[in-house]
Every structure is written in structure tokens, then in C-alpha cells.
Amino acid sequence: MSSLNGMIGSKNGTYKVEPKNYNNADEYYEDWLKSHNELFENDKECNYERSVHRIHRLLHNSFLNSYLKMFLVRTFLRKNR
User: Fold this and answer.
1) How much is the CA Rg of the chain, to the nearest whole Å?
2) pLDDT at position 2, please?
């Protein structure tokens, strides 16, 4: 689980989203997904697997997709106390 948390939690800088720049968790989550999808589209042809590919696969699993959203909402709430 810690590797999954690290894979998701380390992407704020890569995806250029910072929780403190958002008014609510839904906006943060939507921009995180938008940025992820843009990076995935640009990186689709890469001939080795990167974390953006692993995260993209996770998003197709409903349980893991829900986990990812809860993780990002929690991140938003922790950073915006």
C-alpha cells in the first residue's frame, strides 16, 4: 500500500496541481485527473512502463479508482487546514 500511496502522492509536482491552489477537493481531483490524462496521452508511445501507465491502469479498476479519489481528497483536506 505504501508504494501505491507514494505513486499517487508524488504526482502533485509532476501533474502541476497543488492542493492549496484549489477551493474544494472536487476541483483538485478533476484537475489532477485532467493533468494525468494529458501526460498519459503524451507518453502512450513510450516503450517502457512509467508510473503514469500504472496509474492509468488503476483508474480502470473501480475499487482502486475510488481509493485514488479518497486519497486525493484526504491530501486536499490535510494541505488546506
Assistant:
1) 12
2) 52
